[in-house]
Amino acid sequence: MIIYGTALLACCHLLGIFLGDLLGILLGVKANVGGVGIAMLLLIFARLYMVPRALLPKPTEAGVGYWGAMYIPVVVAMAAQQNVVAALRGGPVALLSAFAAVAVCACCIAAINRMESPESVAAVDFDQSQPIC
Fold this sequence. Notes:
This protein is mainly α. It folds into two domains: 1-82, no CATH class; 83-118. 74% of the residues lie in helices and 0% in strands. The protein is built from seven helices and no strands. The longest helix has 26 residues, at 2-27. The two termini are 16 Å apart.
């Protein structure tokens, strides 16, 4: 049943790549624009649609959860393929936008952490009998 979660991801990935290519064509760019991000959003929306309707059994949900956890390494691997040297030669805008993105993310994370009260964090009961994987 875990394989069905992988199949759901594959469908979302193919549709995301198609939509990313289509978006690139519409923007006049000869590249895929946000295909992986679109695919992950489709996977999230599919999961949110299927779980309340009992269309996603627990083992299948485990497969979806696994690939959801793999999102960050996939994005890092895709970003490693980008030509960073050419982007930096193009001007300081690439470097400035990278620093701005990191600063905005850091501020958002800090704001989210400050909104949570210490009592709610202390009230979380971690079940030690369940394996993490």
